[in-house]
Amino acid sequence: MSVMADKKLRITQVKSAIGGQRNQRESLKALGLRKIRQSQEWPDTQQVRGLVNTVRHLVTVEEVS
Q1: Per-residue CA distances from 56 to 2, 3, 12, 63 (Å)
Q2: Which keywords belong to this entry (predicted)?
Q3: pLDDT by residue (tens digit) across 12-44?
Q4: What does the angle CA 9 – CA 57 – CA 1 come to, to the nearest 5 degrees?
């Protein structure tokens, strides 16, 4: 188990995916985000960081202990 996996990330959608690229819309869907101001908590893993990196202009990320 990774040391990073002990932490959690709260990911909040702050902008719309309308007009975005298909992979960006699918990344939001994979993160469980459908509406603006909706939040989800995910373990801090490389896979989740990769999804967040794809949509970094549409979301805010904060670490939750």
Answers
A1: 23, 23, 10, 15
A2: Ribonucleoprotein, Ribosomal protein
A3: 999 999 999 999 999 999 999 999 999 999 999
A4: 25
